[in-house]
Structures are given as structure tokens and as C-alpha cells.
Amino acid sequence: MSEERADGGAPEITPATLRRLERASGGLAAASIAAMEQRLPWFQRLPADERASVQLVTQTGVANFVAWLQDPTEAIRLTTEAFRSTPRELSRWVSLRQTLELVRVAIDVFEQRLPEVADDEAQQGLLRESILRFTREIAFAAATSYAAAAESRGAWDARLEALVVDGIVRGDAEESLLSRAAALGWDPGSEATVLVGNAPSEDPPTIVYKVRARAARVGCAVLLGVQGSRLVVVFGTAGSREQEAAAGLAEAFGEGPVVAGPTVSSLAEAHRSAGDAMSALRAVVAWPGAPRPVPSADLLPERALAGDPESERQLVENIVLPLVDSGGALLETVDTYLEVGGVLENCARQLFVHPNTVRYRLRRVAELTGRVPSNARDAHVLRVALGVGRLAKARGLW
């Protein structure tokens, strides 16, 4: 018969029932594992060592249940121990949903075996209520364990991501960098573009949330790193959506200019995009009206004035040499056009040619260099490029 509590409260489980439950605990654990193998197909496919880990959790849980019945104040400590005793990798191959399925099977087995351990129906009811309360604690302990594992993996992924971005900025092209990026889910064949600018806040989680929210909105993969007050974002796109993606991601940056490096074919080449973007970010202050984001290629004049040799090389190779290779007429025409302040008729008189000839030559200049001499910004780029070209020629560089 059920015993009354000393304080006159609800009846409690008898010592005889507790003894029978303790003796039956091994059989309960074995029966639970057998039921899991029979009812859960995914459990059958687990390797032997992983099934052994689940069995360890089950056996510990049954033993803890008996101890908890003797002292319910120990519930949280005892149930948590069931998960602390398992390998850390358990949460990687058994999901939280699957863990709850295991708990449900164990409850069913226990309820089927109640008549073997309980004195009467009252004791069975008490045990049934107790197992439900205890498995609730088990469920909370499991959720806590999985949440801690997720936070640990998230922190590790954040550190790994920061290492990848730092390696890109420093110019590392090692295989280790690519393998780390692949571990973070980066597609090795994806194109890569680097964005740099000011971080939107001093709180890293806030920064990560803003960048990833924008990345999800524009549909691109990102790697990000915060270096002091500077935010570096590497993003990959499919097709020709770089400008759209860059514009969307720029909204996640703080106040001030945002610079986009050139798009490269893979992450292994991303250090070139990062180098151009960093150089442009240092020089963008010389162009107050720069758009946001501004491509690093649009800041070649400012970068050259700041002493960046890479920008000088690009100005010579992309603007000066194509004009030189086309013959002296185009170079002379654009030089004269800029000297006379962009007045076509004055340029034609200086060169002793018809204005239509000047128009034709200027169109050829635009085709070869991508810069329209009649546009104020492009005229500035052309003027600086011609000056850099003369200096490079004087030094015998071409």
C-alpha cells in the first residue's frame, strides 16, 4: 500500500518499490536500447561506438532517476550529469529532435514495465507522474547541452572566420586558408569581392547580425572580420550581381566611405581584391563626393597621389599603354583636349584638324580606356594617368 508523507501530504513511493526499481534499472536500460533499435531506423544506422554513447546516457539516466526519487532536490544536477558524461561529439551525430525521440521511447518502455516494480495502482500512478517530471528535466538538460554545444561551435566558427579574413587581408594564399573557408561553408569555386569600411558599432554580435541579415537579403555568401574600427567583408556572388550585392552589404557598414575591391575568380585570389580595397580606403578621403560603395578602380588617381605603386601600374597599363600602342594621335589628342579645358573647337585648332576628327579620336579613347574625356571625373583620371605615365617613362619603366 502507498505510504502517507510525514507532513500529511500526498502519498510517496514506498521503499519496497524503490528497491525493486533499483534492481530493475539495468533491465530497463537494456529494454530501452532494444526498443530504440526496433522503433528508430536512424538509430540502427549509427556506428557501434555512437550507439554505446547513447546507451551510456540511457543507463546514467535510469540510475539518476532512482537517485532522484530518493532526493528530488538533486534533479537538475543528476540529469545534467547524464549529458556531461557523454562525448562532446554526441550532439554532432544525434540531433536534439532525435534525442527527444530517444527520451520518448524510454518513457514508453518504462510505462510498460511499471507493473513489475510498483506495489499497486497508486504506486504506478506516482511512478508515472515522477517519470514525466524527470523526463521534463532530461529534456531541459538536453536542450541546455545542445545550446551550449551550438554556442561553442558558433564561437569557434567566429574565430575561424576571423582568421580566414585576416589571412586574406595579409595576403595569405595557403591551402590552409582555403580549407578553413570550406569548413565555414564557402564554395571554393565562387567569385570573391572584398568590401572595407567602418564598423557600424563596437558590439561584435550586432555587427555579425547586421552583415548576415543584409547578405541573406541580397542572396550571397559572406565571410567577415572586425579589425579594430574597420569592418572587412568578403562576399561571393553568382553571375554578374556584384554591384547589387555590394550596394546591399554597404548598408551594414557604419558611417563613412565603403570601398569595394575588384571581383576575383576565387578566394585564393581574394588578397588582390583586399589589397586594392585597403589602398583605396586610405585614399578615398581625397574624393569627398565618392559614391558608397565606391569601386577601388575608381580611386586610382587618389591612390596614385597617396603613393600606391599598384595604382600607378594600373593607370599605366590600362590607360597610357593602350593609347601609346594605338599610335601617337590619340595620346596627343586627349592630352591637348585636357589642356584646353575640354573645349573641342580649341582642341581642333591646336591640332590643325577638323572637330569631327577630334570627336572620333575621343570616342576611340573612351573605347580603349573606358574613360570618357568629356566627363569631369574621367577627365581627372586621364590627366593623372598621363602624368603618372610620363614619370614612369622617365624612370624607364616602359
Summarize this structure as a short list of keywords or feature phrases:
about 400 residues; alpha+beta; Arc Repressor Mutant, subunit A; 5-stranded mixed β-sheet; 5 strands; disordered N terminus
**Total number of distinct structural domains:** 3
The structure class reads alpha+beta
* Main sheet record: 5 strands, mixed
Backbone CA Rg: 35 Å
Count of β-strands:
5
Residues in β-strands, percent: 5-15%
Average pLDDT value?
A: 83
Determine the number of helices (DSSP H or I, runs of at least 4 residues).
Answer: 18
Structural shape: rod-shaped
Distance between the termini: 104 Å
Domain PucR C-terminal helix-turn-helix: 330-386
Family: Belongs to the CdaR family.
Organism: Saccharopolyspora cebuensis
InterPro entries: CdaR-like_regulators, CdaR_GGDEF, PucR_C-HTH_dom, PucR_C-HTH_sf
Question: What does this molecule look like?
Answer:
The model is unreliable at 1-10 (pLDDT under 50). The radius of gyration is 35 Å and the shape is rod-shaped. Helix content is 66%, strand content 6%. The longest helix is centred in the middle third of the chain and has 50 residues, at 121-170. The protein has 3 domains: 15-152; 177-305, Alpha-Beta Plaits, CATH 3.30.70.2730; 309-394, Arc Repressor Mutant, subunit A (Orthogonal Bundle). The protein has helices spanning 15-39, 41-44, 48-70, 75-84, 90-93, 96-112, 114-117, 121-170, 175-183, 204-218, 242-250, 270-283, 300-305, 309-325, 328-339, 344-351, 355-369, 376-394, and strands at residues 193-198, 221-227, 230-236, 258-260, 294-295. It has a 5-stranded mixed beta sheet with strand order 2-3-1-4-5, sandwiched between helices. Helix 6 (96-112) packs antiparallel against helix 8 (121-170). It has 18 helices and 5 strands. It is an alpha+beta fold and 398 residues long.
